[in-house]
Hints:
Structural class: alpha+beta
Shape: rod-shaped
Strand order of the largest sheet: 1-12
Number of helices: 3
Order of helices and strands: EEEEEEHHHEEEEEE
Distance between the termini: 24 Å
Strand content: 35-45%
Helix content: 10-25%
Largest sheet: 2 strands, antiparallel
Number of strands: 12
Amino acid sequence: MAISNIRLNMESQPAKINLDIQKTVFNLRTTPPSLTIDSEPAIVEISSRPYGGTLEIDQSPCRASMGIKDFDTFARDYADQGRQAILDYIVDHAQQGDRMAAINTHEDVISNLAAESTTQAMPSISWGWKDSPEIRYYANPVRYNPQAAKLDISSERGTVDIAYQAGKVSGRMAQYQSIRFWTTGGNVDIAK
């Protein structure tokens, strides 16, 4: 029997893998920090009464030095003069009594006392300074009402939110690899 040409055929099939890929998800969300400043300025209130102050002029010392006195000063001065007059009277009479009691001096006391009581001293004129009036000034006070400035500061921290999802890779064989041989031609067919 004659052998004809035999031809060897070969066929290969590669492996195939189906991959299921989930990408990594990385979301970053930020909120910036905030700073709020509220301020109120300082206030100073200044107030004063009109005309600046009070002027007082007391002319009683000036009038008193001229003999014009108010009732209280008049009463006080004449009470002092009356007291002094009584003291002078007592001293004068005590001295007269002492002179009368001194018999050993051989003085004619009664005639001398009579002569002394009829004579008057010469009046004297004196020039003097008149007192000045008392002048007083009271300034009206200026009132200050300060109010301090106000400063309010509020802050909020910034935030960072991170959303992370890891990626996944999963695979499955969609087709396995294989090699197939066979012959064609001739009477013999071999497949393996």
